[in-house]
Specification:
Blueprint: E1 10-20, E2 26-37, E3 42-46, H1 53-60, E4 68-73, E5 76-77, H2 83-92, E6 93-96, H3 110-121, H4 129-139, H5 156-168, E7 174-178, H6 186-203, E8 206-211, H7 214-220, E9 223-228, E10 231-237, H8 238-243, H9 248-255, H10 262-281
Parallel strand pairs: 3-8, 3-9, 6-7, 7-8
Antiparallel strand pairs: 1-2, 1-4, 4-5, 9-10
Helix pairs in contact: 3-4, 3-5, 4-5, 5-6
Length: about 280
């Protein structure tokens, strides 16, 4: 199957994940989940803790293997890839994790952390790894002169920017953000979300944004998938899900979301429409 602008960047079909609880009992954490994701698009995956959203994201990234179902990336089935083929796939799909400190090796410098995916992929970099690291740090708003520091010498927001820089170093097509801002203060969340949107406009990649906070998802997602007890109960364009939810579970989640400031919402819609027009003109 060839990949073109009409083929979804990612297509997930009938995805299932079961974990062994005992010799005779299996727990189904993800049950028959499916969705498509286009280039330059952000899918927000929401639900309560235990809903299966992070397990789904980790299967898409091939960090864990699905029990059944299929994952197609750029028109090719990557569900059972191993070895060099899996390594190549992971160069196109990167993950930003929830806790920036626990996901960054405290013994490594920022330069070692950000260059690790490049080294793992065996990428030849013009000007060397050090130059690539400094460019990546500059791209996410970090001081390139701090590349010799260690993660614990940075604030939480800065440490998460290191994680984002690491993910972007190999120029992926898809970035999976697994609760990537939930451990940050609200003001820092806003800065990181703005950064993620800016980077998407500059580099045309797609996001899967996993979160339990619907107010955050509304700020960044183009479409939303709602999960409950391992199943996908509702999905659709962001505004359709927020303005006219069809499933009772979605309505329950939304009832806990603080009211959106009307002036902010109007500005957000105008910005999104402008971005869509700009993308259509490219």
């Amino acid at each position: 199957m060839s990949f073109d602008d009409h083929t979804p960047l990612l297509r997930v079909q009938n995805l299932v994940k079961e974990f062994k609880q005992s010799a005779r009992k299996q727990f189904r954490a993800v049950d028959d989940v499916g969705f498509d994701l286009s280039q330059r698009e952000t899918l927000g995956v929401v639900g309560e803790s235990g809903s299966g959203k992070s397990t789904t994201a980790r299967m898409v990234a091939r960090l864990i293997d699905p029990t059944s179902g299929s994952i197609e990336f750029q028109g090719e089935d990557v569900t059972t890839r191993t070895g060099a083929a899996l390594r190549h796939f992971r160069g196109n799909v990167q993950v930003v994790f929830q806790d920036p400190y626990s996901s960054l090796n405290p013994r490594h410098t920022v330069e070692q952390i950000i260059s690790a995916p490049l080294r793992y992929q065996g990428r030849k970099v013009s000007g060397g790894y050090r130059k690539a690291v400094k460019e990546a740090m500059d791209r996410v708003g970090l001081n390139p002169d701090h590349s010799a520091r260690h993660p614990m010498q940075f604030s939480g927001g800065q440490a998460q920017r290191i994680g984002i820089a690491r993910a972007l170093a190999v120029e992926p097509k898809l970035v999976i953000c697994d609760e990537a801002v939930s451990a940050l203060d609200v003001s820092v969340q806003a800065q990181v979300l703005d950064l993620l949107r800016d980077l998407q406009r500059e580099h045309d990649f797609s996001y899967i944004f996993v979160a339990h906070d619907l107010a955050v998802v509304r700020q960044i997602a183009h479409k939303v998938a709602v999960m409950s007890a391992g199943r996908l109960v509702e999905q659709g364009p962001r505004d359709a899900i927020f303005d006219n939810p069809q499933h009772e579970y979605t309505r329950t989640l939304l009832s806990a979301v603080p009211r959106i400031n009307p002036e902010w919402e109007s500005a957000r819609k105008s910005r999104d429409e402008g971005n869509l027009t700009a993308s259509s003109g490219n």
